Amino acid sequence: MSDYGAVDAAFEFTAGAVGRVLDSSDQARIDSLMFGAGAMQAAFEEAERARQETARAQELAARQVEATQRRANEMVRENTAQSISAVRSSTVDAMQFSAGAFQAAMDEVSETRDRSLGTVIDFSNEAIEYVTNSTRSEASQSFDKLVKVAGYSVGAIALLQLLPRFFK
C-alpha cells in the first residue's frame, strides 16, 4: 500500500469516525429533544390533570357550601317558625289567663256588690223596725245612724259599680 493509500484509509477512517460521531451526536440531540419534548408533554398533561382535579374539588366544595347554606337557611326558617308559634301560643295563653282573671275579678266585684246591697237592705230594714218600735229620742238616734249607714252604703255601692269601668 502506498502512502496515499494509508492516508486515504486514514481519511476514510477519520471521515467515518467523524460521520459516526456526528450521527451519534445528531441521534443524541434528537433523543435529548424527544426526551425533553416527552418530559414537557408529560408536564403539560400532569398540569392539565391537576387543573381538572382542582376544578372538580372547587366544584365539590361549592356544592357543599351551597348545601350547607340551604340547610342553614332551612334551620333558620324552622327556628323562626317555631319561635313565632311559641310567641303566638304564649300570647294566646296570656290573653286567656288575663281574660279569665279579669272575669273572676268582675264576678267577685258583682258578688261583693250584691252581698253588700243585701246587707244594707237587711240592716236598713232592722233599723226601720227599731225606729218604729223605739221612743222618740231613740228614734232620732237610730234615724241618724240609719242616715249614716245609708250614706256609707250608697257610697260603697257606687264604688263597687264603678270598679268594672276602671278595668275596661
- How far apart are the first and last residues' alpha carbons, in Å? 146 Å
Shape: rod-shaped
DSSP strand count? 0
- Count of discrete domains: 1
Helix/strand-derived category reads: mainly alpha
Task: Return residue spans where pLDDT drops below 50 for at least 5 consecutive residues.
Answer: none
Mean pLDDT: 78
**What does the main sheet amount to?**
none
Query: From the alpha-carbon coordinates, what is the Rg to the nearest angstrom?
Result: 59 Å
- As a percent range, the share of strand residues is under 5%
Order of helices and strands: HH
The number of helical runs is 2
Query: How much helix, percentage-wise, in residues?
Result: over 70%
Describe this structure in words.
- The chain is an all-alpha fold and 168 residues long.
- The protein has helices at residues 3-133, 136-166.
- Helix content is 96%, strand content 0%.
- It has one domain.
- The radius of gyration is 59 Å and the shape is rod-shaped.
- The chain has 2 helices and no strands.
Features:
96% helix, mainly alpha, rod-shaped, 2 helices, 168 residues
List the helices and strands and how they pair.
Elements: H1 3-133, H2 136-166
Summary of the model, kept short:
96% of the residues lie in helices and 0% in strands. By secondary structure, the protein is an all-alpha fold.
